[in-house]
């Protein structure tokens, strides 16, 4: 019989996933020239790297990144970095939608107050996010 300490790490995984963009009001569709997602899961902590370049987007509403590899346990998913290019100049973080595999991009547009990014027809999203499952 093997005895494990309470501090034994026995849950580690690496892999890839396919992220997408969607609108919160109308999900829509998009055409992707780059669409890459990778993750590392250590215990309950998942860290994802996301790079997407899309055009022809038909979504509407707040900008969502969908298709995360695991559902988010809580409601906040802090981001190490996030950049959006080709749409409004946007800096900030993401808000994880608890019990789902979606992120909302939030921050400030050109120095304005904190708000959600709005889905645009084309752009590039580069992000690293960590969250608990």
Can you give a write-up of this model?
The protein is mainly beta and about 130 residues long. Helix content is about 0%, strand content about 55%. It contains no helices and 10 strands. The strands form 2 sheets. A 5-stranded antiparallel β-sheet has the order 1-3-4-10-6, with no helix packed on it. The radius of gyration is 16 Å and the shape is elongated.
Provide the helix percentage. Answer: under 10%
| End-to-end CA span | 29 Å
- Overall residue-averaged pLDDT value: 83
Question: Strand content of the residues, in percent?
Answer: over 45%
Counting DSSP H or I runs of 4 or more residues, the number of helices is 0
Looking at how many chains there are and whether they match, the oligomeric state comes to: single chain
Radius of gyration: 16 Å
Counting DSSP E segments of at least 2 residues, the number of strands comes to 10
pLDDT < 50 runs, ≥5 residues: none
Order of helices and strands: EEEEEEEEEE
Strand order of the largest sheet: 1-3-4-10-6
How would you describe this structure in keywords?
single chain; 133 residues; 53% strand; mainly beta
SSE layout:
Layout: E1 12-17, E2 20-23, E3 31-42, E4 45-55, E5 63-66, E6 79-85, E7 90-96, E8 102-109, E9 115-116, E10 123-132
Antiparallel strand pairs: 1-3, 2-5, 3-4, 4-10, 5-8, 6-10, 7-8, 8-9
């Amino acid at each position: 019989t093997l005895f494990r300490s309470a501090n034994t790490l026995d849950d580690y995984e690496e892999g890839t996933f396919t992220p997408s963009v969607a609108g919160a009001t109308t999900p829509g569709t998009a055409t992707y020239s780059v669409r890459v997602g990778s993750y590392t899961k250590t215990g309950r902590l998942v860290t994802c790297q996301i790079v997407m370049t899309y055009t022809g987007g038909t979504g509407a509403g707040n900008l969502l990144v969908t298709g995360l590899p695991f559902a988010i346990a809580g409601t906040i998913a802090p981001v190490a970095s996030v950049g959006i290019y080709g749409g409004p100049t946007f800096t900030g973080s993401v808000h994880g939608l608890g019990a789902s595999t979606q992120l909302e991009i939030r921050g400030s547009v050109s120095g304005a107050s904190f708000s959600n990014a709005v889905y645009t027809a084309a752009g590039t999203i580069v992000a690293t996010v960590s969250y608990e499952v």
